[in-house]
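This part of the workshop introduces the protein records we will be handling. To make this concrete, we reproduce a full record directly below.
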Amino acid sequence: MRRLVVLLLAVLLPHETSCSAAAASGDRCSRRCGSTTVPYPFGFSLGCPIPLFCDASISTPILPYIGENGTTYRVIAFNSNTSTVVVGLPPSCSRSVPEAKRELSGGNYGVSSRTGLFLRGGCSGINASAGGGCSVPVDVMSRLLRTAQCTGLGSDTSPAAVACVASAPPNSTAAVHGQFLRWEKVEKQKCDDVLTSTVFVLTAEGTATLEFGVAELGWWLNGTCGAGGGERCAANASCTDVKTPSGELGHRCGCVAGMEGDGFLAGDGCYLAKRVSKRNVAFIAAGKNVS
């Protein structure tokens, strides 16, 4: 039966995409995609808690959801310290709000509250031009609209017709609340499409910046720390409960201060920050490894 599932995935995926489930033995999680290794709990086989697909031609992971137009969403970076993943979300005038929600939501991940969505087309919600908590310079939005080739829509191509919706970034004391985008705020705008997105980033110097054309996803594993979830954490890692977008509680493992790694027994565990990891588990950039 497992072999049949693998064969079906190979048929359903686009020709440039492959799944390395056949390389896995038993329930072990295969985390290699070409020359790239992703951090646990992500991987490319049936034994991985959060499965991804693999674009082997450029050693790049992609989200398992394939869009209505055959669109795939490539992973740009992982961050085990914040339990987040950054994916590319290029400008598009034909990505409906329901489709975007399906593309960016999975059984164990969802859009983080640091992500803002730019909506367009028929927006009739309250404060459609200002949206729900974020804004963008007119010249930047004009470039995004031109890149997306939003033509033949009359005045709807103006920057003022784009709504920006975001949730407030969680503060450092919010352990289980406010970590994910509230999709009800997005749907309240009653817009047709998600043009693109931006991520709120706080630099090491403490300044705030916005990265356009990307979305940040937060992830979790099922069950709480008190229900045995913490047993999956490695030594020198802590277990943290997280409130998921559905309202249920999940958990994450993370290395304590001064240590690096994915924090999981089944992964690379935790090691001293100055030690060179044997695997590239911190970040991946399209087309190359970043150790």
The mean pLDDT is 76. The two ends are 37 Å apart (CA to CA). Residues 142 and 159 are 6 Å apart (CA to CA).
